[in-house]
């Protein structure tokens, strides 16, 4: 049942993004940024975490989950370090994911050589 919830919730988030791409003039980059910002806002007010607990990877893997992770990191860092936590909390909370993305991108760049599409 856990896999089904993750599949449905993650698929629903992706389907909403696809509808936005198809039916609006928004670029995919703006939609991605909107998803991260929505995750930060929903995580900041405490709405996203109960959804993420229920949906599992279907809510934590998409970009809204990244935004929620940033908000959670800032909230925890502010409790520990005061106002300085606003600047450091998001990076501390998401450092593992950012490092994995950079490492994966670097490895792919080393393994493959880009070619012109024309």
Question: What labels describe this entry?
Answer:
single chain; about 120 residues; mainly alpha; 6 helices
Describe this structure in words.
The N and C termini lie far apart (47 Å). With 118 residues, the protein is an all-alpha fold. α2 packs across α5 (63-81) and α5 (63-81) crosses α6. The chain has helices spanning 2-23, 28-44, 48-55, 57-60, 63-81, 85-111. It has one domain (2-111).
Would you spell out the secondary-structure blueprint of this structure?
Blueprint: H1 2-23, H2 28-44, H3 48-55, H4 57-60, H5 63-81, H6 85-111
Helix pairs in contact: 2-5, 5-6
Portion in helices: over 70%
Major β-sheet annotation: none
Order of helices and strands: HHHHHH
Poorly predicted spans: none
What do the pLDDT scores average to? 90
Number of strands: 0
What gyration radius follows from the Cα positions, in whole Å?
A: 17 Å
Strand content: under 5%
Distance between the termini: 47 Å
SS class = mainly alpha
Oligomer: single chain
- The coarse silhouette is globular
The tally of structural domains comes to 1
How many separate helices? 6
